[in-house]
Design a protein that fits this description.
By secondary structure, the protein is mainly alpha-helical. It contains one helix and no strands. It has one helix at 6-30. It is rod-shaped and about 90 Å long.
Length: 52
């Protein structure tokens, strides 16, 4: 089994690093979070008076 030259390891590392960076950035920019519907919270308008 032949040994790989160090320059080939460097080129392979650079290739995988660039691939990983491109893949991660594409995933980051493609992802769109689900849009949240604007829900209005209905509060009771009854004012309760506290008797201490």
């Amino acid at each position: 089994m032949p040994q790989m030259a160090p320059i080939s390891w460097l080129i392979l590392f650079i290739l995988f690093s660039i691939t990983f960076i491109v893949f991660s950035s594409v995933n980051f920019f493609i992802f769109s979070p689900p849009s949240s519907k604007k829900t209005t919270l209905s509060f009771d308008k009854k004012m309760s008076t506290w008797k201490w």
